[in-house]
Amino acid sequence: MPLGDRREPVPSRRGIVRDCSEDANTTPGTGLPGSDVVISRVPWPAAGGAVHIVARDGGDVLGGVLVTGTELRHLRVRENARGRGLGTALIRAAERVLLEQGHREATLMVDVGNRRARALYLRLGYVPTGRTNTTTDTRIDDEGRRSKCTQTEQELRKTLPG
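Structure (tokenized):
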């Protein structure tokens, strides 16, 4: 089934989250009646064929995830939009993209201190691979002060159906 033909509802507190199309210009009112959030797939050729999946409510971007190779990267849901099923909907949409591209697994990295995100991934069938990655960055704040930030991420993997 082509990407643009998907209309898969996910319950949310405000109504229905729907996976509507690869067209970034999809607007509320298309797809399922009563829907308020649209999950759109946006091809991103400049990123080597990656696909950016975006959750929007009208003109407001509520979250997104980047799919590149077999990796899900940069999953974000705005704080005031959490708890509505958007993270689950974004991950499921990303997994469908991977399957349609012929991949049979999905991988992602999660900050070891981000318990909420880690719990979501585990609930959706992701399992730790034993691989971790620690990075230290120097950040500069608005006043020009430098600080070091160290982050440790854990790799999780899921075998996709098919």
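Confidence is low (pLDDT under 50) at residues 1-35. Strands lie at 8-12, 15-21, 35-44, 50-57, 60-68, 71-77, 105-111, 127-140, 146-159.
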